[in-house]
Amino acid sequence: MEASPDLKLLPVRYPKAKVLFLPLINTSVPVYEGNFRLLQDAVVSADRTFIGSVTEAKTITLKGTLFYQACDIVKCYAPEIRCLLGCASNATGGEKISRCDSA
């Protein structure tokens, strides 16, 4: 996720990966299979100016980039990049991030 003056981003938490050995390049890589989630908590700023601006209508936009590569039993595909955009309204704590309408 991209840094913001309104948020402190904590480290991304990854699920436990399966380690796959690739003999052709003599290396081991972490592999995630099936459905999984990457989690990252964000702490909302306690700055008085920011807190004073938080209203029912206040929306915090979160932007980020996901880099990944998919493989199947036969081959690995070219790495891909996806832009992520999420929104949190009335950031009072514990809200889940939803897709922004403009995403």
What can you see in these coordinates?
- By secondary structure, this protein is mainly β.
- It is built from 1 helix and 7 strands, in the order ββββαβββ.
- It has one helix spanning 48-53; strands at 7-9, 18-22, 27-31, 42-44, 59-68, 80-89, 98-99.
- The strands form 3 sheets. It has a 3-stranded antiparallel beta sheet, with no helix packed on it. A two-stranded antiparallel sheet has the order 1-4. Strands 2-3 form a two-stranded antiparallel ribbon.
- Strand 2 (18-22) and strand 3 (27-31) form a beta hairpin.
- The longest helix is centred in the middle third of the chain and has 6 residues, at 48-53.
- It is elongated and about 60 Å long.
Number of strands: 7
- Oligomeric state of shown chains: single chain
Radius of gyration using CA atoms only: 18 Å
Number of helices: 1
The main sheet orders its strands as 5-6-7
In percent, how much strand structure appears in the residues? 35-45%
Mean pLDDT: 79
Catalogue the unreliable spans: none
H and E string: EEEEHEEE
Instruction: Indicate the percent of residues in helices.
Output: under 10%
What class do helices, strands and sheet pairing give?
mainly beta
Shape: elongated
